[in-house]
Design a protein that fits this description.
five-stranded mixed beta sheet, 2 domains, about 260 residues, 9 helices, Nucleotidyltransferase, domain 5, alpha/beta
């Protein structure tokens, strides 16, 4: 059995495969220390699957703290999240050439060649705009749960324009709109368009090629996906796996390739 552990800024994921089949997976909120997050996520997966750490032939870590996780003996090797998302997406759908990965703290656009090898990538990790943190802040300003934001935005008839790019200023705009009596649906629609606009700037920098797959926690927001599709004029594939697990899945696939050859 081969495993992947992906510790991000908001969640940690663990996934185990056996002969290419997913045996189990786990998603938890991160703990203060990435090593503790990795141990908790994999520990929960193993306990629920009736397995033990000793059942894992080869484990690969990715995401924030991946090197610490390896040094603490929880993984044999570490690999960048860009490579893991690329490998995970390509394994699920070999025709995918572009991956839009939107996580809690950064957004990445990855381009693969026809064989699934990394060709190019761009990322934004200097500002919360265009990331899951942006949507979290906007949800709080709107007074709804993060999981409610997408469905609310899908009901919008006239999304309201957000003129600022900074998260703090957009949050102020949201509050002002609500104070003036704007509907929460149209404010949510405007938040979604603002989010999509940030990500589109990355997509256009790399020059997207079909097929496009969306991964990361923000992929679960259907309104963001729909806004990106409309702006790009392209269909975006939703993975046949929880999009938050793609990094851990790619790490497990890499672990199988390395560990299976030893």
């Amino acid at each position: 059995m081969f495993a992947g552990i992906d510790v991000g800024s908001l969640t940690a994921e663990a996934l185990v495969i056996d002969e290419g089949r997913i045996v189990g997976s786990e998603i938890i909120s991160v703990l203060p220390n990435p090593v503790d997050s990795a141990r908790a996520a994999m520990g929960a997966l193993l306990a629920r699957s009736g397995l033990d750490w000793g059942d894992l032939t080869y484990t690969v870590s990715t995401g924030y703290g991946r090197e610490q996780i390896q040094r603490q003996g929880l993984a044999r090797e570490n690999l960048s999240e860009i490579s893991c998302h690329g490998l995970g997406a390509h394994t699920l759908d070999p025709e995918v050439r572009t991956i839009i990965d939107i996580g809690g703290q950064d957004a990445k656009v990855i381009k693969l060649d026809t064989k699934g090898r990394l060709e190019d990538f761009v990322m934004n990790n200097k500002c919360a705009a265009g990331t899951g943190h942006f949507l979290e802040a906007m949800s709080r300003a709107l007074g709804v749960g993060l999981e409610e934001l997408g469905p609310l935005a899908m009901k919008s008839k006239k999304p309201l324009a957000m003129s600022n790019r900074c998260t703090i200023y957009v949050e102020t705009e949201v509050i002002h709109y609500l104070q003036r009596g704007a509907s929460r649906e149209d404010v949510a629609g405007g938040i979604t368009l603002a989010m999509a606009d940030r990500v589109l700037s990355l997509v256009r920098r790399i020059g997207p090629e079909s097929k496009i797959m969306i991964t990361g926690g923000v992929a679960k927001n259907k309104a963001v996906k729909a806004a990106l599709e409309k702006a790009l004029g392209m269909k975006i594939v939703y993975p046949d796996l929880d999009p938050q697990l793609i990094g851990a899945y790619g790490a497990a696939v890499y672990a199988a390739a390395k560990g299976g050859s030893k």
